[in-house]
Amino acid sequence: DCQDSKPCVMRAARHLRLRRFLEQHPEERERRVVNERTRVANFSSQQRASVEQRWRAVTGNPACLNDCGLKGACVKGLCVCADGWVGLDCMSRSTLSDVPDSGGFMYVVDVPAHQGHMQMRGAYKGAYGDAIYHSEVVFTGRLMRDWSLRTLKRAEAKLFYVPTWMYYTQNNVLNGDHRYRELLNLQLPGNASQRVFYFSGDRGACGVPRGSTFISHWGLTVPWKHRSDPQNRNSSRDGEPCAVPGSDIIVPMYFHFNHTGATQLSRREYECDLFFAGSYGPPGCRGKECDDPHYSQGVRQMVKEQHGKRRGFCLFKRAPNTYFSRSRFCLISSGNGFGSRLYHAMNYNCVPVIIQPAVMQPFEGIVPYERFSLRFSHADIPRLHTLLRNVSAEAHWQMRRQLAIWRHALDWNELAYDLVKYELCLRAGLSCTSLRTGWESKLDAVADQVLGLGRVVRERSRSL
Q: Please, are residues 297 and 228 in contact by the beta-carbon 8 Å criterion?
């Protein structure tokens, strides 16, 4: 989904070819994983110091998780625990006789550092690879020091969180089944229904056997094979759905929102009725590879075919982000999995037009997407121009006002963590009234600050 960067497209092409090669040669994939772990283990002190600096810049957290609980030393990004203490942040007792109380309901499994934590801390140049995959880092960092969610008593836990780190141990485009099997070999506590895994890759939990709660960015409710033809969702021979409503938690990707513009809403004329910029085939594809009918669930290709020459439809391969604010509506489609355009559109207060068949959106069921976006199916695409034209100026204005409020719910620096915590509480079967009241109050405060609509937001939340 490279919008305006030729180097990005070239990297994507190489990545696509490598991905297909590794999918066909699992033994080579395993060899590369082992080599990467060895490389990280041999980082020089200078490389480690650079990693620590980037860690602080990206997450705002101490260099080590939970600052080692003040019960250990942070050495090269990993905690060296004092006698009697163990775990990724030195908060677990080495014996079960003296486990401190906490009050939470989710136990964090102490996955060995070489099973992902070490790679997450230093495997990638830059700020840990592409920032859109950092939500697992942010969530885990906050979880480790949130004693209203986390418990140190395994026997009293309702849920067991397994740090997955798939993006850092494999890559962002493969299915998660290989990584899932690696973690199951660790003899995890609890039964399958109590375990929580975080799959931050493009395809979310596609290909992973069902039974546990999966946190991901990709809410496809049918098997991967049927992503562009959801009507065949009942075919059990083609695998299980990538996400299950009521079981899995679909979360936003990590994105830096600019909320200062939310208070600068104004009625205006727009240059474009609908804007989209991106590829119409798999990034980096060549020849017939670009005719993949499953890419973007077939949506981008169909929109271009039906409306590519239509006046007011600004459909590009690459375009500056300023088009988001110059457009009345912005097309939100899938790519090879989840996409980033929903967040770009919300950042610029461009009303999203979501065409993602059988795909749950982040926090769907809590966030009222019908208030600030439009959702259509494949069948609606030929008459998309008419459907958009029928949206009155007043209705469009009200959607933009709601958009300026609810985007805070998808911001990891604002309310996203609170909503994940609330969803986990529901999965644990507990009374979650206080958690719900907490994020409702924060959202109402945002609404009052932005548009004076706190009461409206509050009423909407209570109707859920």
A: yes
